[in-house]
Amino acid sequence: TGFTSTITGFVNGETISVVSGSATYAGAATTATAAGSYTITPTAGTLSASNYNFTTFTNGTLTINTSNSSITVTGATSFTYSGLPQGPSTSTVTGSTGAVTYSYVGTGATSYGANATKPTNAGTYSVTATVAADANYNAANSVATAFTINKAALTVTADAQSKPYDGLVFTGFTSTITGFVNSETISVISGAATYGGAATTATAAGSYTITPVAGTLSAANYDFATFNNEILIITGGALPVTFIKFTATRNGNNVQLNWSTGSEISIKNYEIEKSSNGINFSKMGTVASLNSATGASYQKMDIYPYNGVSYYRIRSNDENGQHAYSVIAVVRFINEGIKVSPTLINNNKFTLTLSEQPVGNYNLVLTNLAGQRIFQKKINYTGGNNTQIIELGNSYLGAGIYNLSVIDTNGNYQNFRLLINNK
Question: What's the 3-state SS for the chain?
Fold first, then answer.
């Protein structure tokens, strides 16, 4: 709106002071807003002078220059490996309405060349956003914004083992690793877990802790964050029956138990025993023996398995009152919405996380291997993702293995094995 003019042609040293009024202006310049060049057309308007006429009007030009834009990367800068491309991809732009693009590059020890595709693997990266120019604004680049894709956490759980007494140390320890994402499997892992605990040296009949450790386990996109103990059972004495095979397998929400024998002499019946901790067993059913000298096959369905880990064994009873046990079979019904960490406790407390579980009161019951109740606490869960720090109070807990039962409002159990190292 601030148009001006220059008036020339005065004589005898006169100046614009002899002129009154002002010019007015027309042309495209008077309505233009976009960047570009526009004609300014002056007209006489109210110009007046006693000795002069305003006869010639020369157009001018209005130039509207393009302005600078700015762009800033926004959004999260910390991600966890998911097997899919990840990284910041939002921004705030001032100025241009042009297309926004992103360039991702690895930093530090992470090798990832500048690329428009978000990175997938764990590592450190930076992203730069660019907005293209439009008719009125210049293009602009953001400052490089650092972000991280953290390794995903895996859980290593020792597999429960059992064997009859033979005077030898058990060596065939194995583990189950869970927590893989995007349908990945153990094939992305190299190395192997190693094992500690009393089970590695035990030879006498009894129950012994198997403690898995990372050993040489390695994975580019995973950390080995949680290690869960299990139990080695060494059963004593010679079996009065030859067990050929005993299996426990999930069948929907039930557990199918099958066992077969190589010979049966004066066997009265078989008792099916179940435990939530691999130590304390109770009878869940009885099956009569066929007393076949060449062996027989049997089955039993458990329609009420524990919500967690269920341990099973078969007890054979002969006509003379003697009994013996099969090896132990294990079935897991893991509720991923209930998590306890860490399971190796040094400071008398742990973290309980409930996610998408039935709303209501939950009971936490801690028992030792003798089944004695050491600690109990009731908490209220109102839904969603809830994390609480559970302190075991002033209870003195000697170093050893304990069983934690998390019991929901419907009476379902989720059991966790805790190794407490309090001194």
Answer: CCCCCCCCCCCCCCCHHHCECCCEEECHHHCCCCCEEEEEEEECCCCECCCCCCCCCCCEEEEECCECCEEEEECCCEEECCCCCCCCCEEEEECCCCCEEEEEEECCCCCCCCECCCCCCCEEEEEEEEECCCCCECCEECCCEEEEEECEEEEEEECCEEEECCCCCCCCCCEEEECCCCCCCHHHCECCCEEECHHHCCCCCEEEEEEEECCCCECCCEEEEEEECEEEEEECCCCCEEEEEEEEEEECCEEEEEEEEEEECCEEEEEEEEECCCCCCEEEEEEECCCCCCCCEEEEEECCCCCCEEEEEEEEEECCCCEEECCCEEEECCCCCEEEECCEECCCEEEEEEECCCCEEEEEEEEECCCCEEEEEEEEECCCEEEEEEECCCCCCCCEEEEEEEECCCCCEEEEEEEECCC
Tokens representing 295 are: 């062996």
Give tens-digit pLDDT for 97-121.
999 999 999 999 999 999 999 999 9
Please tell me the pTM assigned to this model: 0.53
Res 325: pLDDT: 87
Report the alpha-carbon distance of residue 186 to residue 156 in Å, rounded: 11
Looking up tokens 């839904």 gives 383
What's the pLDDT tens digit per position in 152-191?
A: 999 999 999 988 877 789 999 999 999 999 999 999 999 9
More confident residue, 369 or 48: 48
